[in-house]
Every structure is written in structure tokens, then in C-alpha cells.
Design a protein that fits this description.
Radius of gyration: 29 Å
Helix content: 40-55%
Number of helices: 2
Strand content: 15-25%
Distance between the termini: 91 Å
Largest sheet: 2 strands, antiparallel
Order of helices and strands: HEEEEH
Number of strands: 4
Strand order of the largest sheet: 1-2
Structural class: alpha+beta
């Protein structure tokens, strides 16, 4: 019976130590913020809105695609 109590105490001690360690461990970097994604009006590739070009009410992935669309409309 004393061995069973000893085993239970050891498991409780290990559990308590692990729990206290997890509280002290540094958190993962949660500074990653999500960004709005947009699709290129020419080729359809998805890219972050901050990296896209906004020309005449549409989003483009590069200047070549933005120029190609504006020349087709004329």
C-alpha cells in the first residue's frame, strides 16, 4: 500500500513540475498578423494586399500586368 501512495505522490509531483514549467516557458511569437489577400486581375495569382498594385479599381501582381490590362481597355 505504501508503494502505491509513493507512486501517486511521484506522479503528482511530476505533473505539478511540468505544469509550473509550462507557465514559465516563453510563449510562441503571436505577433504574426493576418493580411487581406487579393487576386491579380490579369493572371489571378493571390498575393497580400500590401504587396499588390491598385490601378483603376483593380489589383495587380506586377507593373507588367497592370500595363497590359490598361492598354487592352483603350
Amino acid at each position: 500500500m505504501s508503494r502505491l501512495i509513493l507512486i501517486i505522490v511521484i506522479f503528482a509531483l511530476v505533473f505539478w513540475l511540468l505544469k509550473s514549467y509550462r507557465k514559465q516557458a516563453p510563449k510562441h511569437d503571436e505577433t504574426h498578423k493576418t493580411q487581406d489577400m487579393v487576386g491579380c486581375a490579369h493572371c489571378g495569382v493571390n498575393l497580400p494586399k500590401s504587396e499588390s498594385l491598385f490601378v483603376e479599381g483593380k489589383y495587380y501582381c506586377c507593373t507588367e500586368h497592370s500595363r497590359g490590362q490598361s492598354s487592352k481597355q483603350k
